[in-house]
C-alpha cells in the first residue's frame, strides 16, 4: 500500500493554501478565551496558597462576602467531596480541600463586578494555615524519612507491594534480553547522569473561560482549550454533574502545547456562576499561569550504553525519575518508552519512577516525557560515538530501527522514516558546513509515537455546492486548512469552496483533544471518510437523476459521470448541480464519520545544531539549526514546517535558558516572561527544515502526526553541540551562562 | 471609585470612555471600547501581545494608563486593514503561514508595521531585534521574519 | 478608603504643590514618567491606591539640548526619541547604547532616562553610563532647584535622593572633551528583554599619544547600588589602554563588587562577568576615543 | 494462534509468564481467554491499557480483529500533548 501511495499525485494536498481562519486572526477579529463578554458578567479571581505545603485549618470568607459588588465567594466546601468524584486528584487540584500542596494552589475564589473588587475581596479572605515542610526535589522526595505528601499513596507497579506511605507514585520497567550479559559483551561502555529542570509550555494566551449555569443546572462554558469534550467530561467529574447539562464551546486558542488538555478555572467559574446567578469570566494572570497551571516534569536520569567496537549496540540501560508535582501523573510511561525507541538494542533494561513533590501538578507538554528522556539518551549516544570515533550519524544508522524492527516498547514498526531522516542529515549541507572558530555542532534524534483515538466529522453540502466540514478539534495551528484540503482532495472541488467549523460539544460528534499529534491523522481520517460518505450519496443522487443504476456512476474531479462504457446520454453533474437539485432527489446531503483511529504512524526526526560560545561569559548562541522529520505526508507543508520550527525553538529554550527557579520555601522566583526566559526573535537563527515523507500505511494519504516530535531532539542536539565546542559534557539543563562558565573554568583548573 | 472621562482618537475615530486612574490602556481598549484584537499575554510589558501605536510610537498598551490617552491618537490591530483591503503585512503573514495559534499575531503586525513605516528595508537582524519584545511560542519566528521581509519588499514596490 | 487618582500638571510648580500637598496629608503620591516600571509595580508588587503624578507634560522634563557647553536630557523623554537622536549618539554613544538596551522596542516607546534613574534598581542600565559620563541630576523642589552627581542620587535598592516635594527634571553633562568617549555593556542570558546580570559603563579620555588621561568606570548589578569604581579608572589612567590595563580595570571591578546570588545569576558569576564587561567596554570606549577629535 | 507479549507491568497478573499464544479472533476474545488462564487479567487489561496489534497502536481496544498470526503487545496508554 505504501509503495502505491508514494507515487500518488494529489490535486490540492501538499499545497500551501491560506488558512480559512486566517483573516480573522490577522485583523484581531478572532475571539480567544478572554475575548467574550456577556451582559451582566462578573469577573472571578482565585485566592492561591502562599505556602508550598500546608494544612488548611480554617477559611473565613465573611469579610469578602460582605463587600459591595461581591456576588460569590467559594472554597473547597462548595465542591463535591474530592474523594467521592471519579478523579479525586483533579478535583483537589482545581480547589484545595484539607491541604495545599504547592505555592499557588487554589484555596478560594471570588466573583465580583470588577477586578478591583474581586481582588480586594480575595485579599479579605482569611485562611489559617499550618505550614508543613515542603518536598521540593526528586532526591528529597525519595530520601529515607522524607516528608510524605499524601499519606494514602502507595507505589503502583512496585515489584513488591508495600503498605508504607511513600512519595513514589509509580514504578515502571521495560526490559528485554539480559542487560548484564549485553554489557559483558560490549567493547565499549559509556555511562552518564543527567538532570532537567521544571519548564513551562509558555503559551502566550493565559487560561480563560466564561461560564453560565441556570437554575436547572444547565451550564455553558466558553474557554480556551485543546479539547472541549475533555473540558466537559473533566468538569462534569469534578462537579458531579451530567455531561448532557454542560455545553462547552472552544474559543480560538492561543497556544497550548499540551498545557490546555486539562481544566483549572472552568469548574470554579461554573460554581460561582451558580451562586451569583450571573455569567462569570475568569482569566489567569501570567504569574498564575506559571505558578498554578501544569508545567512539565523536572527529571533525573542515569544512562548506560554498551557497544561493540564497530558500533553495534549490545546493551542499553536507563533509570529516569520524573517529578509529578503535587499529584501522581508525570509522563513516566511515554518517557521510558521513548528513551531508546530509535535503536535496536538486543538487551535493555529501562526503569523509572513518578514522584510527588510540592510543585504544581504537571501537565502534558509536547511529546510528554520524551524530551527529558531522549536528552539523556541522545547525549550518551553522542558520547558513545566519540568514544568509538565513529561519526554520530553513522552510529545511529548502524543501530537504527526500521520497518520490522521491534520497538523497545514492544511492537514491530511498520514503515518508518528514521533511517531516511539520518541519511538526509548526513547528506545535508549543514552537516558538512565548515564551523567557525569557537563553534560546535551537535546532532540528535527524536521520536514520538503519535496518537489516534476518537474523532468525528460531518460534511454538509450547501445548496450551491459548497461544503461545510464540522469537526470538534480546536484549531491550534492551521488544522482547519488541513481538514479543508483533505475534503477538497476527496470531493474534487476547489479548496476555497470548503468551510470548516470547529463546533461545540452539542454540535459536533465526540472528539478527543487537539493533542498527541492526532488531529490531521485521526480527525483528518474522519473528514476523509465523511467525504467518501458524501460521494456515495452524490453518486446515488446522480443515478436517480439520470435514472440509471448507482453502480454505473463514478465520481471524478468533482462531478458525477457515467462509468466508461455505460450507455447513458447524460451530461456530467457537478457537486453544485446535484446540491441544487437535492430537494427533489431525497433532501439535503450530509455525510458523517466517527472512528477510533488505530495505527498512528510513529514520527522520527534528526536535528543538527551549531552553537557559538563566549568563553568569557559562558553564553551559548545557536547559530544554525536544521530540523529533519518524517511527516508521512505533509498535507499543508507550511504548517508542518511551522511545527518543526516551533518545536525547535521550544527545545532550544529548554536547552539554554528555561527553568523554574524555586526558593527554599518552594516559591517560584521567576513567574513571568521577564525571568522565565523563552527565546525571543533575536535569540534564534532561521530554522532550516527538511520534510521527509515515508507514508504511514494506515492513513489514506500516509499522514503521520507531526506536532510533538519536533521538541524532542533539540535538547540533546544543542547539548551535544556545546560538548563539541567546549570539549566538556555538562549534564544538567539549562546550559545557562553561569553553568557553562563554571564548567569552562573548572576544566581550565 | 471615581472614573475619569477621557476623549481620544482610536483608529482615526474620536472615542470617549470612562476609566479608573490605574486602569491600563489595554484594559480600556478591551473592556470599555470592545476592541479585543489587542491581546493580554502578560500585563508586564514582556510579551508584546498588547502592542499599539500611541501618537505614532509603538508601545505596550498594558504599560500605559487609560487616562494618558486623553487627546492622543491610538492605532490598534483593528485599524490596520483599510477600505482597500488587508495591509501587505497581513497578506504576507497569511501567505507565509506566519501564525499558528494567532494570539500573538495582532501584536506582531502592529509592531512590524511600526518598523516598516520608519525603515522600509530592514535586514534580518534589524527585524529580529525590533520584534524581540513580541513573544511567539508557536513558530520559532522563522516564518514571521520571512513574512515581514516579504511585506517590506512588496511595500517598496518590488516584486517578491 | 483612599482611591487612585491621576494628575498631569503642566508646570513644575504645580507638580511640587501636588507632591507637597500629598506629603503633608500623609497620602501617597508617585511620579509617572514612562510608566514601564511603575505600572508593573502597581500590578505585581504593591497595588495600593495612590495619586499618580504624570510629569510628561512639563517643558523641563521634555527638553533635549545638545549644546557646546552643556548637554541636557529631560527626565521624561522616551528612549525611542533619545536613541533616534544622532547628535546625542555622536556625543555620548555609550549612554545611548545603555538607553537602547532597556527593554523592547515597545518599552523604548515609553521608558525614560529619568525613570530608569529614579527607579534606582541596582541593575538599571543607564545608571553606569550616566555615572561614567559624570551626569548631574537637575532636581526641582520647594526650595528651588539643585544639582547632584548621579552617583550620589541613588541611595539604595529602589531609593533615591529626592526629598519631599522634589522631582528630577533632567540630567546635565559637560560635553566630552577631545579624544573622549564612552561605552556601556551589560550581560544578559538572552539577546534582549532581560535585566542586566552585570553591566559596566566606561568613559575614557586620551592624550594625543593615546595615553589615557582621565577615566570613569561604573558598574551595575553587582552591589546594592550602581558603583563608581575609582580603582578601575586608576588602572586605566596613564596607560595606553592595552590588554593588561583593561584586565587590571576588570579586576578592580571584580574587587569592588559585592553581588548576591539570585534568579538572574550567582554572585561568583557576576564577579567574573563584570570584569569581562569592564574590559570590553573600556576597549570599545578607547576605540571610540581614538577615532574622535 | 496470536502471539501475546506480556510487559513487565502486567507480569504479576500472568505469574511472570511473558509470552503466550492464544487462539482468538478479536481482542475481546483474547482477553477472555487470558483471563481464563490468568484470573484477573481482564480486570488488569480491559479499559486500562492500550494495545499494539501487528504494530498498530490502539488506545482503547475491544472489538479489534486478530489474525491467526497476529502479534499483540500491551502498552501504557499514551495521549500526548
Q: How would you describe this protein?
A:
The complex is a heterotetramer of chains A (749), B (160), C (293) and D (81). Chain A has 749 residues and is an alpha+beta fold. In chain A, strands 3-5-1-12-9-10-11 form a seven-stranded mixed beta sheet, sandwiched between helices. The longest helix of chain A is centred in the last third of the chain and has 28 residues, at 519-546. Chain A is globular and about 90 Å long. Chain C is an alpha+beta fold and 293 residues long. Chain C folds into three domains: 5-54, Uridine Diphospho-n-acetylenolpyruvylglucosamine Reductase, domain 2 (2-Layer Sandwich); 59-173, Uridine Diphospho-n-acetylenolpyruvylglucosamine Reductase, domain 3; 180-291, Enolase-like, domain 1 (2-Layer Sandwich), CATH 3.30.390.50. In chain C, α6 (93-100) runs antiparallel to α9 (126-132) and α12 crosses α13. Chain C is globular, with a radius of gyration of 19 Å. The model of chain C has no long low-confidence stretch (mean pLDDT 96). By secondary structure, chain D is of the alpha+beta class. In chain D, β3 and β4 (56-58) form a beta hairpin. In chain D, 20% of the residues lie in helices and 25% in strands. The mean pLDDT of chain D is 93. Chain D has a five-stranded mixed beta sheet with strand order 2-1-5-3-4, covered by helices on one side. At the A-B interface, α2 and α20 of A face α2, α3, α4 and α5 of B.
CATH architecture of the largest domain in chain A: 2-Layer Sandwich
Count of discrete structural domains of chain D: 1
Give start-end ranges of low-pLDDT stretches of chain D.
none
Strand order of the largest sheet of chain D: 2-1-5-3-4
Mean pLDDT of chain D: 93
Distance between the termini of chain D: 36 Å
Counting helices, strands and paired strands, the structural category of chain A is alpha+beta
Strand order of the biggest β-sheet of chain A: 3-5-1-12-9-10-11
Mean pLDDT across the residues of chain A is 97
CATH architecture group name of chain D: Roll
